[in-house]
Please model this.
Amino acid sequence: MMRRLWPIFTRDLALLTRGAQGRGGAVLPLLFFLAVAMLFPFAVGPDARLLARTGAGVIWVAALLAAILPLDRLVEPDVEAGLFDQWALRGISEEALLMVRIVAHWLSFGVPLMLAAPISAGLLSLNAQQLWTVEVGLLLGTPGLAAIGVTIAALTAGMRAGAALGGLLAIPLAVPLLIFGAGSLQPGGEGGLALLAACSLVALAVAPFAGGAAIRAGRE
Amino acid sequence: MQECGLVATDVACRRGDRILFRGLSLGLGRGGIVHLAGPNGIGKSSLIRILAGLLRPYAGTVERTGAVALADERLALDGHEPLGKALAFWHRIDRVERETADFGLADLLDVPVRYLSTGQRKRAALARVAASAAPIWLLDEPLNGLDAYWSCKAQAAIHAHCRDGGAVVIASHQPLSLDGVSVIELLDFQV
Model:
């Protein structure tokens, strides 16, 4: 099984990172993430104390919205092109395929976000301690965002206006991650990190099965 | 070639609230070719998907022995990749070396899939099926868009596959010039 999943993983990762066929790649969510961090100080003013207090929350909102951007190209193009049918004929389960895709999606959007977080932190004048908490929070939270994203993408594959609907569906599911992620940055909120990890694990555990069922139901 | 067989018993197909056909049975084993014939919208493609196991029959059962390869209107090749790379992706998953039958794609291997013409895309799909090493081929309109020469060559490849012990189901509204084909007229099973 692993030997068959490896070529699929490398393909998924290449497609999601580099982008092709109307897929934007990893750059677009990253630019979006940085743009929010850059615009926020313009909007609320350069008061360093205010920025430091609200900045971490902004980083989390930006991360969540950046996770929604690539939703419509996560699963839909491959369902449309018949790749999922061909994989099914070869006895490769949708669950395994979606697990692979969650990992590839996380690598192509979670990791760049973590790399860009120090820049955002600088723009929002967070201190080193806060940046560290943001980084740990992103490490724990972005896998959950990736899992939710892939699930929603599988659910809305083949729907008209799936992209807009996907965003609306993903936001409520991602709210716990946002609350615990941003909450962990409050003084004494480190316990939020554990809850963030728990939310991520739940999302990761449910996502392949929910998404797989959605893809199979979409064939009817 | 490994043992293969495809048996459908009393299959009915429903799309939306319409029953397209019912009571359809077919069986084929090594070397068998079945031609599903009928006008547009009669349910040929749906039956192919039912036989492939991608669609649940409304009634009846389908039993498959051996791996199945499907060529339908969905190419399942990445449009931005050169044809050679896109086909190699499936070769890696199927763990096969390269094309067995010649579909005249040698000159097209470095052309991105999205630039291929209708006929060339069809040939690419047939090459993917032929290379998959699956004994059962399910082909949905395999000759659409092929010129006379390649139509002949494709049918020769189908014939060769059956001679080697494979089984083929072809859904097509066109007449086929193949020997030993059992034709199933879907109109006979229309509700």
